[in-house]
Protein 1
Amino acid sequence: MRPIFLFLIPLIFSISCSSYSHVDTQMAGHQIDAWHQAAANAEFDTYFDLMTSDAIFIGTDATENWSLKEFKTFSKPYFDRGKAWSFESLERNMYQKNALVYFDELLDTQMGICRGSGVMAQEDGRWKIAHYVLSIAVPNENVASLTELKKEWDTDYINQLRNQ
């Protein structure tokens, strides 16, 4: 009887931990969906309330690495127009490690398919986005022509960064 009991303890613990992670990632996923919907509905306060107070947003342009305050300033005119941007998640992977949720997603956007990836943390008892990176997905067969298209800009910006 004792060996069976000792075998059941780790089994019960692993089942309860995995369902806890699933519940948390499911709740975090709902928060990401609500965040995207708030942007589509131009709900400025709702959108930014779904981000942590020290959040970082990295956009598709090499110069876009914003603190929450900077991102709010950049975004405000878009929200004031009545529609910021509309991102629909097509596919999402989520992983929980301790007190953080990591995710990546393919998005249907006005720029075509993009990839978003981020980290979520609990703040005020809710999952919120702490770090988000948005990138434009480029098929491998188009990389050479894209590289050529942005070559001059990249060279200038690389020189600027190196000479800071």
Protein 2
Amino acid sequence: MEDSRMSLPLFIPEIMKRKWREYLEIRWLLIGVIAAVASIGFMNKWHYPSLPIESVTPREAIQKMNASEQDLVEISRKGDGIWYIMELTKSGMEGIDDKIIAFLDGKGWSFTEKEGSGLFFEKDDERLIVSTEMWTKHYVLVRIPSQI
């Protein structure tokens, strides 16, 4: 009996070591899984903010932009407006405005003024208001009324 009492304290530290190792292995495994999911999500553009339109996802909008050679890419027709996406250039919003003005000039609309994020155009006796919205630091959303 004395032998078993003497050997009991020797087993407790070994059991504690084994449990501690299991805990560390599980912890590092969980950290690895979380890091893998986060990096996959980041690579798949989960980090893009939502769009003001429901008919297209942020990922689809980026894919349309990347697949096109044009500066102004249509991503959705919703109600009385057409939504476009543009990539921000080094010239910033001025470059975006110039591209929108050139696009609508080709459709017969004359630029009259800019107020805030709105660009105002006229054609015959009609007035058109185009709004721009900074979506991310690299992309701008443009809403043009469908009357163009």
Protein 3
Amino acid sequence: MKPHFWRPPVLSTERVTLRPFANEDAEPLFEYARNPNVTRFTLWDAHQTVADTNTFIRDYAVLRYMEGMPEPYAITLKPAPQPVGACGCFWAAEPHRTMELGYWIGEPFWGKGYVAEACRAVLGLAFAEFGPERMQARVIDGNAASGRVLEKLGFRYEGTLRRALLRRGRFEDVRMYSLTREEWGRDQKPEIT
């Protein structure tokens, strides 16, 4: 457990800044988190009120930071400071050195490469600072765009877990992807600011 004030480092790419969430992010993030198109393939439901987004920041993000996880990062597009999505990595099975990557972004920013750019920076940090042997990602079947993001990052499709997830009253198939430390390459470093 990290001290209650610990936050992951800010990461920067050509078009994206990744930073820890702050309380003042609730209102701007709500504009995207309330869209059912955004949450169509997520484990969480569309936010109904700004209070839902506040709960995400206060109860989820802060607790993850206290665990020392680089998750969730606020995705901001330079030069604007407002978050338009989130991404990050957490331990799926620490004794087995397996982390999991997750991400989402507001609908106006789909198909522009921002998620892959943001995730590449987070993966660089995770492989350099946390030392996983394996990074995995789960994609609900039907979310082809998410699969393309992972393939751009070098992940390999491993197979489909049939009816592996009960979500919103329905069993879903889940596509598994992975990326090993060797595949990532040891010479890639994150840009920490």
